[in-house]
């Protein structure tokens, strides 16, 4: 919009130029201060945070906050310059408000995804490399952005999940995990002998250095945990490091089978009995 400076008799041109220059200088100094402050915060985070993934997330949040604040500063600077030129900014503000409302209504899903991404990074809900489950989808987190999360499942499929849709997430590799192996034995079997086979498998697993390195506690045989009309259910559990529960459970199953064979304990399998009874047919009556 062209501005006729001759219509501004109250303020000399030099004063207008000086005011605009001062506004631009203040905006530049504010941006410089924000950059300096964000660098200091990032250096402090580098000294206090040893986890590289967490450090990257925190740096991303710092840069995001800096950019948002600087965008607001530039917006205020533009409005101040227009006011200095005695341009009525009320219609512009109203138009911007209406346009912003229309954009927010049309992009509310996108805004929801961005807010969800910020919360995921700020609260450290999960990181790249974690195995998580979101609804019916589970897989390894390959990448996290402010808008979406990329999950790779066991079949190699890549799922792109919008962050705004992540309402309930289960992190399977956070802090610690637990390998749970259930074994069914016949009801008529010697249950104490079966429990002894599980305890022997637990001792062997903890004695094996390759398996022990993935455990945080010795495996424990829980004994009876349930039964049905065809078997008694026994359980062996081991607390492991994050992401190691699957390999530990596989080794526990192998040791359990070996010890059950050595002890003469038979596993139970569901069976079904079908009885066929001979039916007596009446003679076919001819018409």
Descriptive overview:
Helix 1 runs antiparallel to helix 2 and helix 5 crosses helix 7 (245-263). With 287 residues, the protein is of the alpha+beta class. It contains seven helices and eight strands; from the N terminus they run H-H-H-H-E-E-E-E-E-E-H-H-E-E-H. The mean pLDDT is 83. The protein is elongated. It has a five-stranded antiparallel beta sheet with strand order 4-3-2-1-5. It has a three-stranded antiparallel beta sheet with strand order 6-8-7. The N and C termini lie far apart (106 Å). The longest helix has 36 residues, at 13-48.
Query: Care to count the β-strands?
Result: 8
Element pattern in H and E: HHHHEEEEEEHHEEH
Structural class: alpha+beta
Number of helices: 7
Low-confidence stretches: none
Q: Strands across the major sheet, in which order? A: 4-3-2-1-5
Average residue-wise pLDDT: 83
Query: Strand fraction band?
Result: 15-25%
The N- to C-terminal Cα distance equals 106 Å
**Radius of gyration of CA atoms, rounded to a whole number:** 34 Å
Major β-sheet annotation = 5 strands, antiparallel
Helix content: 40-55%
Shape: elongated
